[in-house]
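Attaching the record inline, Q. Sequence:
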Amino acid sequence: MPSEPLLLAFDTSAAHCAAALLRGQTLLGARAEPMARGQAERLIPLLEEVLAGAGVGWRDLDALAVGTGPGNFTGIRIAVAAARGLALGLGRPAIGVSVPEARAEGMERPLCVVEQAPRGQVCMQRFDPDASAPRLVALTELAGHAASLPLAGSAAQEAHDLTGQPLRAPRYPLAEGIARVAVARLGSAQPRPAPLYLRPPDAAPPAEAPPVLLP
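Structure, as predicted:
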């Protein structure tokens, strides 16, 4: 049996369905398909295709990794629920990795990762001595928060056009970045993957009171 761990990572936090398979630090396979909807139906078949392409099966895996967001509410829930279910069924650990962590993996620091967010905002996270958790800021106010750091992420070009801060291309595609962060965490205690939400959902509660259940 190979001594290096086999780890399958996946992400549906945006308009895509993506996966990567690592044996230690070696990439065995990866897929990324753009899709605005349908991730719930496509995710497991895509994972099976990645595994089959490398000649391995579910029981060969040593661990799973999943992108926890920030991103699309429904997409994040799809991937996290799948990771929890697979981990339970296979008896393997599942490791949650945020999108900013995956974008920053293997890149020179200091760095600021900026991801698309609605309403003229971006999700930003600094990777420098003053690093903090991801947070939402207005795009027009980014320069004041990012302190002229180089930019990477899905909103990096838009942020660069506004602020003039230098651009950096992520070293790895998103799913592979998730996998590489997770491989480094194997062997240490990890919390169960949970969605990373930076704002409440857009759905509003119903205006009418819910029905009352009679005894």
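The radius of gyration is 19 Å. Residues 82 and 134 are 24 Å apart (CA to CA).

More tomorrow.
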